[in-house]
Amino acid sequence: MNSRLPSYFKQAIPVGKKFFNVRNKLKQGKHATVCEQAQCPNRTDCWARGSLAFQIMGEICTRQCGFCAETNGQPLPVDLQEPTSLAETAVQLKLKHVVITSPARDDLPDQGAGHFAACIRALRRQDALIAIETLIPDFQAKPDLLQIVFSEKPDILNHNLETVKRITPHVRSAATYEKSLFVLETASKAGLLTKSGLMVGLGETREELFEVFRDLQRCGVKQVTVGQYLTPHQKCLPVQRFYAPQEFDSIHQEIQGMFQHVTAGPLVRSSYFPSGQNT
Question: Where are the beta strands (DSSP E) in 34-149?
């Protein structure tokens, strides 16, 4: 296939006082963010609206998924001061919406669930009005570990299904389609507002894609994001197909009645709801 990036993916270089103020504060606090790690094209918009995705527990993942450029290996010990530092930075930046995510930490006894909970508590102590979204790994679908996060009642519990059932083993190194659905269904039954994201362009069929939407609806998921997969590194999986903007519009129109909130578009990412786009 032609791997050249279509013109509608071109974005302006991030600029502005707000953008560089956020970047400087993050450097001072030594915080990793998905925004920077993934070179997200929506950074300027999100940061201007007071939304930011912190990546806690380091930048080394214990898994090696085919779509992700995260470094794989033996992670460093968890920084026990990170929850306090994260919360202080969020307040200094006057954030309104904070996303907390992490690499998989299968090396830890609780796989990092306790650290997620500590970050939620620290944020709420600093500013109870900040909306908190947790984008969690699957914690190997262990109910006791999931409950550690669920008990803190984040405003949004996000866990990405990433792709369709058939190609999940090819795309995700350890997580399974069934475990991810279990995480989402368990969160919904716990009374949490649940959200999940999908990447398209990895070789899925339209029929398979809509099977995923039906499964998410059955599990009680209320918010869904659909975006184009882009190869982050030459060692990662190649893009099989680029979806045109009109195709994302079509997907949105067909599933908007299934969920409370749907965002679909070429540059949509899991933690991003663009202003006025497919909302």
Answer: 51-55, 60-61, 71-72, 97-101, 131-135
User: Residue 136: CB partners within 8 Å, gap ≥ 6?
Assistant: 101, 102, 116, 149, 157, 158, 159, 183
pLDDT in tens, 100-147: 999 999 999 999 999 999 999 999 999 999 999 999 999 999 999 999
Q: Measure the CA–CA gap between 72 and 64, rounded to whole angstroms.
A: 6
Beta bridge partners of 32: 55
Please choose, from the candidates 183, 188, 186, 273, the residue with its C-alpha nearest in 3D space to the C-alpha of residue 227: 273
What the chain holds in terms of domains, given with CATH numbers, is 7-265 (3.20.20.70)
For residue 37, report the phi and psi dihedrals to the nearest 5 degrees.
Answer: -55, -45
Identify whether the C-beta of residue 244 lies closer than 8 Å to the C-beta of residue 131: no
Q: How far apart are CA 261 and CA 274, in angstroms?
A: 12
> What single-letter DSSP state applies at residue 162?
B
C-alpha–C-alpha distance, residues 95 and 118, integer Å: 18
Coil vs helix vs strand at 223: strand
Q: What is the pLDDT of residue 23?
A: 59
Instruction: For 152-217, give the DSSP string.
Output: T--SEEE---BS-TTTHHHH-SS--HHHHHHHHHHHHHTT--EEEEEEE-SS--HHHHHHHHHHHH
User: What is the tens place of the pLDDT at every residue in 224-263?
Assistant: 999 998 876 777 788 999 999 999 999 999 999 999 999 9
Kindly report the pTM of this predicted structure. Answer: 0.86
Residue predicted with more confidence, 217 or 28: 217
The two structure tokens encoding residue 127: 């500013």
